Amino acid sequence: MHRKILTAALVISCLSLVSCSTNNSVEQPKDDLSQENISDPAVSEAKLQEAGADCMAGTAVSGRPVRVVSTVAPITNLVGLIAGDIGPIVQGIVPEGTNSHTFEPPPSAVATLETADIIFVNGMMLEDPTLELAKANAPKAVICELGTSSLAESDWMYDFSFPKDGGKPNPHLWTNPPNVLPYLSTIRNVLVNADPTNTDKYDANYVLVSRLVMNLDDAMKVATATIPKNERNLLTYHDAYAYFARHFEYEVIGAIQPQSFEEPSPKDIAALIDQVKSKKVKAIFGSEVFPSPVLEQIGKETGVRYIDVLRDDDLPGEPGDAEHSWAGLMKFNYITIVEALGGDASAVKAVSIDAKISDKATYLQ
Ligand SMILES: [Zn+2]
Protein backbone atom coordinates (compact mmCIF):
# COMPACT_ATOMS: atom_id res chain seq x y z
CA MET A 1 0.00 0.00 0.00
CA HIS A 2 2.77 2.40 1.00
CA ARG A 3 4.60 1.54 -2.15
CA LYS A 4 1.63 2.47 -4.36
CA ILE A 5 1.17 5.81 -2.66
CA LEU A 6 4.86 6.50 -2.94
CA THR A 7 4.88 5.59 -6.61
CA ALA A 8 1.99 7.90 -7.39
CA ALA A 9 3.56 10.69 -5.38
CA LEU A 10 6.81 10.29 -7.29
CA VAL A 11 5.06 10.42 -10.65
CA ILE A 12 3.15 13.49 -9.62
CA SER A 13 6.23 15.21 -8.21
CA CYS A 14 8.03 14.53 -11.50
CA LEU A 15 5.13 16.06 -13.37
CA SER A 16 5.21 19.14 -11.23
CA LEU A 17 8.83 19.54 -12.36
CA VAL A 18 7.60 19.61 -15.93
CA SER A 19 5.73 22.83 -15.58
CA CYS A 20 8.87 24.49 -14.21
CA SER A 21 11.23 23.13 -16.84
CA THR A 22 12.09 25.25 -19.83
CA ASN A 23 12.69 22.49 -22.36
CA ASN A 24 9.24 20.98 -21.83
CA SER A 25 10.65 17.53 -21.14
CA VAL A 26 9.14 15.25 -18.56
CA GLU A 27 11.33 13.32 -16.17
CA GLN A 28 10.88 9.60 -15.88
CA PRO A 29 8.96 8.49 -12.81
CA LYS A 30 11.66 7.81 -10.24
CA ASP A 31 10.58 4.28 -9.50
CA ASP A 32 13.17 1.52 -9.27
CA LEU A 33 11.55 -0.32 -12.15
CA SER A 34 12.64 2.35 -14.55
CA GLN A 35 16.29 2.04 -13.66
CA GLU A 36 17.16 -1.44 -14.79
CA ASN A 37 16.68 -1.56 -18.52
CA ILE A 38 16.32 1.99 -19.57
CA SER A 39 19.39 3.67 -20.86
CA ASP A 40 20.96 6.51 -19.01
CA PRO A 41 19.66 9.65 -20.71
CA ALA A 42 23.11 11.14 -20.21
CA VAL A 43 24.62 8.56 -22.53
CA SER A 44 25.57 10.39 -25.65
CA GLU A 45 24.10 8.36 -28.47
CA ALA A 46 23.54 10.04 -31.77
CA LYS A 47 20.49 7.99 -32.77
CA LEU A 48 18.80 8.43 -29.42
CA GLN A 49 19.29 12.18 -29.40
CA GLU A 50 18.34 12.61 -33.03
CA ALA A 51 15.14 10.59 -32.56
CA GLY A 52 14.32 12.54 -29.39
CA ALA A 53 14.76 15.84 -31.24
CA ASP A 54 12.55 14.60 -34.11
CA CYS A 55 9.75 13.85 -31.62
CA MET A 56 9.84 17.41 -30.29
CA ALA A 57 10.15 19.12 -33.69
CA GLY A 58 6.50 20.13 -34.05
CA THR A 59 4.65 23.30 -33.26
CA ALA A 60 1.22 23.93 -31.74
CA VAL A 61 -1.85 23.05 -33.81
CA SER A 62 -4.70 25.47 -33.38
CA GLY A 63 -8.28 25.74 -34.55
CA ARG A 64 -8.83 22.02 -35.13
CA PRO A 65 -8.12 18.70 -33.42
CA VAL A 66 -4.56 17.34 -33.57
CA ARG A 67 -4.39 14.44 -36.04
CA VAL A 68 -2.29 11.54 -34.79
CA VAL A 69 -1.35 8.33 -36.58
CA SER A 70 0.16 5.31 -34.86
CA THR A 71 1.29 1.89 -36.08
CA VAL A 72 0.90 -1.29 -33.99
CA ALA A 73 -2.13 -1.67 -31.70
CA PRO A 74 -0.38 -1.67 -28.26
CA ILE A 75 1.28 1.64 -29.12
CA THR A 76 -1.97 3.00 -30.56
CA ASN A 77 -3.60 2.17 -27.21
CA LEU A 78 -0.89 3.98 -25.22
CA VAL A 79 -1.33 7.04 -27.45
CA GLY A 80 -5.13 6.70 -27.22
CA LEU A 81 -4.97 6.66 -23.42
CA ILE A 82 -2.73 9.71 -23.07
CA ALA A 83 -4.97 11.52 -25.59
CA GLY A 84 -8.19 10.25 -23.93
CA ASP A 85 -11.09 12.50 -24.84
CA ILE A 86 -8.96 15.67 -24.78
CA GLY A 87 -9.26 16.19 -28.51
CA PRO A 88 -6.59 14.50 -30.67
CA ILE A 89 -7.91 12.08 -33.28
CA VAL A 90 -5.83 8.89 -33.07
CA GLN A 91 -5.77 6.41 -35.95
CA GLY A 92 -3.86 3.10 -35.94
CA ILE A 93 -2.72 1.99 -39.40
CA VAL A 94 -1.30 -1.52 -38.88
CA PRO A 95 -4.29 -3.90 -38.93
CA GLU A 96 -4.43 -6.13 -35.87
CA GLY A 97 -3.46 -9.71 -36.52
CA THR A 98 -1.04 -8.91 -39.34
CA ASN A 99 2.71 -9.42 -39.21
CA SER A 100 3.91 -5.96 -38.21
CA HIS A 101 7.52 -6.88 -39.08
CA THR A 102 6.78 -7.35 -42.76
CA PHE A 103 3.76 -5.01 -43.01
CA GLU A 104 3.71 -2.94 -46.20
CA PRO A 105 1.18 -0.11 -45.88
CA PRO A 106 -1.42 -0.14 -48.68
CA PRO A 107 -1.81 2.93 -50.92
CA SER A 108 -4.85 3.92 -48.83
CA ALA A 109 -2.50 4.58 -45.89
CA VAL A 110 -1.02 7.52 -47.78
CA ALA A 111 -4.18 9.59 -47.32
CA THR A 112 -4.10 8.97 -43.56
CA LEU A 113 -0.40 9.75 -43.29
CA GLU A 114 -0.43 12.90 -45.37
CA THR A 115 -3.01 14.62 -43.18
CA ALA A 116 -1.30 13.68 -39.90
CA ASP A 117 0.28 16.22 -37.58
CA ILE A 118 2.03 13.51 -35.57
CA ILE A 119 3.06 9.98 -36.59
CA PHE A 120 4.11 7.66 -33.77
CA VAL A 121 6.01 4.51 -34.68
CA ASN A 122 7.93 2.07 -32.51
CA GLY A 123 11.03 2.50 -34.63
CA MET A 124 14.12 0.37 -34.00
CA MET A 125 13.52 -0.66 -37.64
CA LEU A 126 10.18 -2.38 -36.97
CA GLU A 127 8.07 -0.38 -39.40
CA ASP A 128 10.58 0.72 -42.04
CA PRO A 129 8.13 0.66 -45.03
CA THR A 130 5.61 2.76 -43.05
CA LEU A 131 8.36 5.13 -41.98
CA GLU A 132 9.51 5.60 -45.58
CA LEU A 133 5.96 6.24 -46.74
CA ALA A 134 5.45 8.74 -43.93
CA LYS A 135 8.67 10.61 -44.72
CA ALA A 136 7.75 10.77 -48.41
CA ASN A 137 4.12 11.81 -47.96
CA ALA A 138 3.99 13.73 -44.70
CA PRO A 139 7.03 16.02 -44.80
CA LYS A 140 5.49 18.43 -42.30
CA ALA A 141 4.37 15.83 -39.75
CA VAL A 142 6.27 15.11 -36.56
CA ILE A 143 7.55 11.55 -36.99
CA CYS A 144 8.33 10.18 -33.54
CA GLU A 145 10.10 6.85 -33.07
CA LEU A 146 9.16 5.94 -29.51
CA GLY A 147 11.57 3.03 -29.10
CA THR A 148 14.51 4.62 -30.90
CA SER A 149 14.16 7.77 -28.80
CA SER A 150 13.95 5.91 -25.49
CA LEU A 151 16.67 3.27 -25.57
CA ALA A 152 20.31 3.97 -26.38
CA GLU A 153 21.65 1.87 -29.21
CA SER A 154 24.14 0.29 -26.83
CA ASP A 155 21.17 -1.28 -24.99
CA TRP A 156 19.46 -2.69 -28.07
CA MET A 157 19.24 -6.48 -28.00
CA TYR A 158 20.03 -8.80 -30.88
CA ASP A 159 19.06 -12.44 -30.66
CA PHE A 160 17.46 -15.41 -32.44
CA SER A 161 15.14 -13.81 -35.00
CA PHE A 162 17.00 -10.50 -34.83
CA PRO A 163 20.69 -11.44 -35.19
CA LYS A 164 23.24 -8.64 -35.16
CA ASP A 165 24.43 -9.46 -38.66
CA GLY A 166 20.88 -8.94 -39.92
CA GLY A 167 21.18 -5.31 -38.84
CA LYS A 168 17.76 -5.08 -37.14
CA PRO A 169 17.53 -5.11 -33.34
CA ASN A 170 14.76 -6.85 -31.44
CA PRO A 171 12.17 -4.03 -31.41
CA HIS A 172 9.75 -5.44 -28.81
CA LEU A 173 10.27 -2.94 -26.00
CA TRP A 174 6.54 -2.71 -25.31
CA THR A 175 6.30 -6.24 -23.88
CA ASN A 176 8.40 -5.02 -20.91
CA PRO A 177 6.70 -2.53 -18.55
CA PRO A 178 9.82 -0.51 -17.61
CA ASN A 179 10.48 0.15 -21.28
CA VAL A 180 6.94 1.48 -21.72
CA LEU A 181 7.43 4.35 -19.24
CA PRO A 182 9.59 6.47 -21.57
CA TYR A 183 7.07 5.83 -24.37
CA LEU A 184 4.42 7.43 -22.17
CA SER A 185 6.50 10.47 -21.30
CA THR A 186 7.41 11.00 -24.95
CA ILE A 187 3.78 10.66 -26.06
CA ARG A 188 2.81 13.16 -23.36
CA ASN A 189 5.53 15.60 -24.43
CA VAL A 190 4.67 15.40 -28.12
CA LEU A 191 0.94 15.91 -27.50
CA VAL A 192 1.61 18.84 -25.13
CA ASN A 193 3.85 20.38 -27.78
CA ALA A 194 1.00 20.20 -30.31
CA ASP A 195 -1.74 21.20 -27.87
CA PRO A 196 -0.17 23.16 -24.99
CA THR A 197 -3.44 24.60 -23.69
CA ASN A 198 -4.43 21.13 -22.47
CA THR A 199 -1.15 20.32 -20.68
CA ASP A 200 -2.85 19.63 -17.34
CA LYS A 201 -5.22 17.12 -18.91
CA TYR A 202 -2.42 15.23 -20.67
CA ASP A 203 -0.48 15.18 -17.39
CA ALA A 204 -3.48 13.72 -15.56
CA ASN A 205 -3.76 10.92 -18.14
CA TYR A 206 0.00 10.39 -18.06
CA VAL A 207 -0.16 9.84 -14.29
CA LEU A 208 -3.02 7.33 -14.61
CA VAL A 209 -1.34 5.31 -17.37
CA SER A 210 2.10 5.37 -15.69
CA ARG A 211 0.50 4.09 -12.51
CA LEU A 212 -1.18 1.27 -14.43
CA VAL A 213 2.16 0.27 -15.98
CA MET A 214 3.87 0.30 -12.59
CA ASN A 215 1.07 -1.67 -10.91
CA LEU A 216 1.30 -4.31 -13.60
CA ASP A 217 5.07 -4.46 -13.27
CA ASP A 218 4.80 -4.89 -9.49
CA ALA A 219 2.27 -7.71 -9.89
CA MET A 220 4.36 -9.37 -12.58
CA LYS A 221 7.36 -9.34 -10.24
CA VAL A 222 5.29 -11.04 -7.51
CA ALA A 223 4.08 -13.71 -9.96
CA THR A 224 7.58 -14.19 -11.35
CA ALA A 225 8.91 -14.97 -7.88
CA THR A 226 6.61 -18.02 -7.72
CA ILE A 227 8.65 -19.68 -10.50
CA PRO A 228 12.13 -20.89 -9.51
CA LYS A 229 14.75 -19.00 -11.48
CA ASN A 230 16.14 -22.14 -13.11
CA GLU A 231 12.66 -22.92 -14.46
CA ARG A 232 12.21 -19.56 -16.11
CA ASN A 233 12.97 -20.82 -19.59
CA LEU A 234 11.17 -19.35 -22.56
CA LEU A 235 10.97 -20.96 -25.95
CA THR A 236 8.65 -18.90 -28.08
CA TYR A 237 7.58 -19.01 -31.68
CA HIS A 238 7.77 -15.25 -32.18
CA ASP A 239 10.82 -13.57 -30.65
CA ALA A 240 9.02 -10.84 -28.70
CA TYR A 241 10.32 -11.22 -25.13
CA ALA A 242 14.00 -10.27 -25.12
CA TYR A 243 13.72 -7.11 -22.95
CA PHE A 244 10.97 -8.66 -20.83
CA ALA A 245 13.23 -11.67 -20.17
CA ARG A 246 16.15 -9.50 -19.12
CA HIS A 247 13.96 -7.59 -16.66
CA PHE A 248 12.17 -10.59 -15.12
CA GLU A 249 15.24 -12.85 -15.21
CA TYR A 250 14.09 -15.42 -17.73
CA GLU A 251 16.32 -17.21 -20.16
CA VAL A 252 15.04 -17.07 -23.72
CA ILE A 253 16.46 -20.36 -24.90
CA GLY A 254 15.26 -19.89 -28.43
CA ALA A 255 12.76 -18.51 -30.87
CA ILE A 256 11.37 -20.81 -33.51
CA GLN A 257 10.61 -18.20 -36.13
CA PRO A 258 13.63 -17.50 -38.31
CA GLN A 259 14.87 -14.05 -39.29
CA SER A 260 12.88 -14.30 -42.55
CA PHE A 261 9.59 -14.76 -40.61
CA GLU A 262 9.02 -17.92 -42.61
CA GLU A 263 8.90 -21.45 -41.20
CA PRO A 264 12.16 -22.95 -39.85
CA SER A 265 14.00 -25.59 -41.87
CA PRO A 266 13.83 -29.30 -40.90
CA LYS A 267 17.41 -28.96 -39.61
CA ASP A 268 16.44 -26.03 -37.38
CA ILE A 269 13.43 -27.96 -36.10
CA ALA A 270 15.61 -30.95 -35.20
CA ALA A 271 17.99 -28.66 -33.30
CA LEU A 272 15.07 -27.06 -31.43
CA ILE A 273 13.73 -30.49 -30.46
CA ASP A 274 17.14 -31.39 -28.99
CA GLN A 275 17.21 -28.10 -27.11
CA VAL A 276 13.72 -28.57 -25.66
CA LYS A 277 14.71 -32.02 -24.41
CA SER A 278 18.05 -30.99 -22.93
CA LYS A 279 16.74 -27.84 -21.22
CA LYS A 280 13.73 -29.66 -19.74
CA VAL A 281 11.45 -26.92 -21.05
CA LYS A 282 8.00 -27.02 -19.48
CA ALA A 283 6.05 -25.32 -22.24
CA ILE A 284 6.52 -23.85 -25.71
CA PHE A 285 4.76 -20.62 -26.47
CA GLY A 286 3.31 -19.89 -29.87
CA SER A 287 1.88 -16.67 -31.15
CA GLU A 288 -1.70 -16.06 -32.04
CA VAL A 289 -0.61 -13.98 -35.04
CA PHE A 290 1.69 -16.71 -36.36
CA PRO A 291 -0.14 -20.07 -36.21
CA SER A 292 2.42 -22.75 -37.04
CA PRO A 293 2.24 -26.51 -37.56
CA VAL A 294 5.90 -26.63 -36.49
CA LEU A 295 4.98 -25.87 -32.92
CA GLU A 296 2.62 -28.81 -32.82
CA GLN A 297 5.32 -31.04 -34.30
CA ILE A 298 7.88 -29.97 -31.69
CA GLY A 299 5.28 -30.47 -28.95
CA LYS A 300 4.46 -33.97 -30.17
CA GLU A 301 8.07 -35.07 -30.56
CA THR A 302 9.16 -33.78 -27.17
CA GLY A 303 6.01 -34.41 -25.16
CA VAL A 304 6.07 -30.76 -24.07
CA ARG A 305 2.87 -28.75 -23.92
CA TYR A 306 2.56 -26.03 -26.54
CA ILE A 307 0.42 -22.98 -26.03
CA ASP A 308 -0.23 -20.98 -29.15
CA VAL A 309 -2.08 -17.96 -27.83
CA LEU A 310 0.56 -15.35 -26.91
CA ARG A 311 0.20 -11.95 -28.51
CA ASP A 312 2.82 -9.33 -29.16
CA ASP A 313 0.81 -6.70 -31.00
CA ASP A 314 -2.71 -8.08 -31.54
CA LEU A 315 -4.82 -6.90 -28.60
CA PRO A 316 -7.29 -9.28 -26.91
CA GLY A 317 -11.02 -8.62 -27.27
CA GLU A 318 -12.58 -6.09 -29.59
CA PRO A 319 -12.05 -2.32 -29.80
CA GLY A 320 -14.05 -0.80 -26.94
CA ASP A 321 -13.48 -3.76 -24.60
CA ALA A 322 -11.35 -3.11 -21.48
CA GLU A 323 -9.00 -5.95 -22.41
CA HIS A 324 -8.48 -4.48 -25.87
CA SER A 325 -5.49 -2.56 -24.55
CA TRP A 326 -1.76 -2.76 -23.94
CA ALA A 327 -2.49 -3.69 -20.31
CA GLY A 328 -5.03 -6.33 -21.40
CA LEU A 329 -2.43 -7.88 -23.69
CA MET A 330 0.25 -7.89 -20.98
CA LYS A 331 -2.07 -9.36 -18.38
CA PHE A 332 -3.30 -12.10 -20.70
CA ASN A 333 0.22 -13.04 -21.83
CA TYR A 334 1.70 -13.13 -18.36
CA ILE A 335 -1.08 -15.18 -16.78
CA THR A 336 -0.61 -17.62 -19.68
CA ILE A 337 3.18 -17.83 -19.26
CA VAL A 338 3.21 -18.09 -15.45
CA GLU A 339 0.53 -20.77 -15.27
CA ALA A 340 2.14 -22.83 -18.04
CA LEU A 341 5.41 -22.78 -16.12
CA GLY A 342 3.70 -23.94 -12.93
CA GLY A 343 3.70 -20.58 -11.12
CA ASP A 344 0.96 -18.63 -9.36
CA ALA A 345 -0.44 -15.78 -11.45
CA SER A 346 -2.95 -14.54 -8.87
CA ALA A 347 -1.12 -11.22 -8.33
CA VAL A 348 -1.42 -10.45 -12.05
CA LYS A 349 -5.05 -11.61 -12.13
CA ALA A 350 -5.80 -9.10 -9.36
CA VAL A 351 -4.52 -6.09 -11.32
CA SER A 352 -7.20 -3.81 -12.69
CA ILE A 353 -6.42 -2.96 -16.32
CA ASP A 354 -8.94 -0.15 -16.32
CA ALA A 355 -6.96 3.08 -16.70
CA LYS A 356 -10.16 5.10 -16.09
CA ILE A 357 -9.64 6.82 -19.43
CA SER A 358 -11.63 6.14 -22.58
CA ASP A 359 -9.43 5.18 -25.51
CA LYS A 360 -10.98 6.83 -28.55
CA ALA A 361 -8.36 5.59 -31.04
CA THR A 362 -9.48 3.85 -34.21
CA TYR A 363 -8.00 0.41 -34.82
CA LEU A 364 -7.86 -1.33 -38.18
CA GLN A 365 -9.06 -4.93 -37.83
ZN1 LIG B 1 6.63 -8.85 -33.16
Your description of this structure?
By secondary structure, the protein is an alpha/beta fold. The chain folds into two domains: 220 residues, 3-Layer(aba) Sandwich (Rossmann fold); 121 residues, Rossmann fold (3-Layer(aba) Sandwich), CATH 3.40.50. It is 41% helix and 10% strand. It contains twelve helices and eight strands. The strands form two sheets. The protein has a four-stranded parallel β-sheet with strand order 2-1-3-4, sandwiched between helices. Strands 6-5-7-8 form a four-stranded parallel β-sheet, with helices on both faces. Helix 3 crosses helix 6. The chain is globular, with a radius of gyration of 20 Å. The chain starts with a helix and ends in a 16-residue tail after the last helix. The N terminus is likely disordered. The site of zinc ion has 7 residues, from loops.
* The named CATH superfamily of the largest domain: Nitrogenase molybdenum iron protein domain
DSSP, total strands? 8
Given this structure, which CATH class of the largest domain is correct? Alpha Beta
Give the distance, in angstroms, between the N- and C-terminal Cα atoms: 39 Å
Helix/strand/pairing category? alpha/beta
CATH architectural category of the largest domain: 3-Layer(aba) Sandwich
Rg to the nearest angstrom?
20 Å
As for the CATH topology of the largest domain, it is Rossmann fold
- Reading side by side through the largest sheet, how are the strands ordered? 2-1-3-4
- Report the sheet with the most strands, covering strand number, pairing sense and barrel closure: 4 strands, parallel
Q: How many domains is the backbone divided into? A: 2
DSSP helical segment count: 12
Query: Stretches where pLDDT falls below 50 for ≥5 residues?
Result: 1-41
User: Proportion of β residues?
Assistant: 5-15%
Overall helicity: 40-55%
Instruction: Sum up the overall morphology in one term.
Output: globular
Reading the helices and strands in chain order gives: HHEHEHEHEHHEHEHEHEHH
